[in-house]
Specification:
By secondary structure, the chain is α/β, with parallel strands linked by helices. The strands form 2 sheets. A 7-stranded mixed beta sheet has the order 6-5-4-3-2-1-14. A 7-stranded mixed beta sheet has the order 7-8-9-10-11-12-13, with helices on one face. The structure holds zinc ion (2 copies). One zinc ion binds next to helix 3.
């Protein structure tokens, strides 16, 4: 199977429209080696013919145009078979509305995510006014065949991130990670763009993966505070830091993973600068930092 990073940035992308932090300035003025990134999404396929997107970012249109395997064939037939959602965050779901011209959209999501999309952001309700939407409920722990030997199993990712849309937001299944297995080889990959704590259950899901695409949102938990940009920590936003004690670099060191790749990288994260000391630390840990367009065959 193939996994392709369509967008490696966190919400807002890199650079973010209203941000002039040191990294956003550097990517705009070219003063340091770094590359822009669109907002977080991947595509997965068993045969490079039918593709499954995980998350529909606000940059979905540009992401489809940038990857010819996602271009339409024969009239308006799209190779995008379905969209799988990790949660109902705006940067992961706003792109659903941009698929409204389609003949129909198949969406896989947990019950709490569907509920937020219906009664919170209303994206699902709005999309249904434009095209048929087929809903497939994601149940953590259940294996779901996608055809051609590809299957997924979602797993719960507990979060204490405050809810914006009422109590249903705090249900289990509000955030999930996905484990994709190629049944023809038994090899699997894990997509985990938002994780607050590497619980034992999550570590178990990751262990043995050929590829892990993992949350690289903030370098430090208090990164936004340090830069004077916001009062929220990475933890408050549902993410673990990369480099603080107990952070993801430390967590990953104890796991058996073929290739570990950071994505969902916030525009403030200094590891985006390719000659930074922070990037060197990531390199030394044998972890990669995704660019848009990174493709891995598993
Ligand atoms: Zn996000
Ligand atoms: Zn910035």
């Amino acid at each position: 199977m193939w996994l392709r990073v369509l967008g490696a940035g966190a919400g807002g992308g890199f650079p973010q429209w209203n941000c002039s932090c040191p990294t956003c300035r550097a990517v705009r003025d070219g003063s340091r080696p770094c590359h822009p990134r669109t907002q977080s999404s991947i595509a997965v396929s068993a045969d490079r013919d039918r593709w499954f997107l995980v998350n529909a970012s606000p940059d979905i249109r540009a992401q489809i145009e940038a990857f010819d395997a996602l271009h339409p064939r024969d009239d308006r037939v799209t190779p995008i078979a379905a969209v799988l959602l990790t949660d109902a965050e705006l940067d992961h779901t706003l792109g659903l509305l941009l698929l409204r011209e389609g003949r129909g959209v198949t969406v896989h999501a947990t019950a709490p995510t569907f509920e937020t999309l219906r009664t919170g952001t209303g994206f699902l309700t709005t999309l249904e006014r434009y095209c048929p939407v087929e809903r497939c409920e994601v149940v953590p722990g259940k294996d779901v065949p996608l055809g051609d030997g590809l299957s997924y199993r979602a797993f719960d990712v507990p979060t204490t991130k405050p809810s914006r849309f009422g109590p249903v937001d705090s249900d289990p299944g509000r955030v999930v990670g996905y484990r994709f297995t190629d049944e023809r080889t038994g090899r699997f990959a894990v997509h985990l763009p938002g994780v607050q704590t590497f619980t034992d259950a999550i570590r178990e899901e990751i262990d043995g993966a050929e590829l892990l695409l993992v949350d690289g949102t903030c370098w430090h938990d208090d990164e936004l505070r340090r830069l004077g940009l916001a009062d929220k920590t990475a933890h408050d936003m549902g993410h673990i830091s990369v480099a603080d004690p107990g952070g993801s670099l430390e967590q990953l060191a104890g796991l058996r993973v073929g290739r570990a790749v950071y994505m969902h990288i916030n525009n403030t994260n200094p590891m985006l600068i390719e000659d930074s000391p922070e990037r060197r630390v990531v390199d030394e840990h044998g972890v990669e930092v995704a660019l848009d367009g990174l493709e891995v065959e598993v």
